[in-house]
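Worked example

This section walks through a single chain of length 138. The input is the sequence exactly as stored; nothing has been trimmed or padded.
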Amino acid sequence: METNFEIIENYAVRLNGVHIDLHNNFDFKEILEFDDTVHIVFVKSDGEWVSKNEFKKLIFSHLHISFKKILKGSSSEFLEDQNTLSEITFFPKALRETNDAFMDHAKPNENDDIIYFFENGTIFRLNCEQIELLVEDC
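Given that input, the structure is written out below as tokens.
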């Protein structure tokens, strides 16, 4: 798997030297599927702590998908939990039965999946040839 970003401390990514805090500054909006491509879309949070210069939208474009698993989380009393990313990680595809752990890798190893964990327990786990992070300016 190739990426144009690095994972930082399992809650953020770095793209072209820019630190992007997925947990605090972005809300999950939707997952879009087209043939063998999956887009995971985040939009800038409207929280007062978010810089006005933050990106407006992020799209993680997963190209040539070979594996996809979505585990639904619980309904939480806090609606924002379904849209708040708790962790993001690269994790060995040989351990696909393990969906409650993460590793501290900035870049994926050859046989890794990417896992997106949300505060309500929802998990998106994907394997693909390439992930391209696309951003829309503020």
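What to look for: The first helix runs from residue 22 to 25.
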